[in-house]
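Researcher: I'd like a structural prediction for the single chain below. Treat it as a standalone chain; there are no partners to consider.
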Amino acid sequence: MALVLKAFPTRLRRFKEGDRVSTQDDLSPQSFEGLVDAGYIEKLPHAAKSKKQDPSKTD
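Model: Treating it as a single chain, here is the predicted structure.
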């Protein structure tokens, strides 16, 4: 879930600052990525990939 930074309307509802929105929400006629690029929705942090230590390697 991402945080709405600036209010914006969609065909179904109006999102206000502080609302939570997900990539599955119907944001038409806009897109999630377009609203992120325009600064209306916060950019989602990329999940850090877990690095498994190789047991054969030692420091």
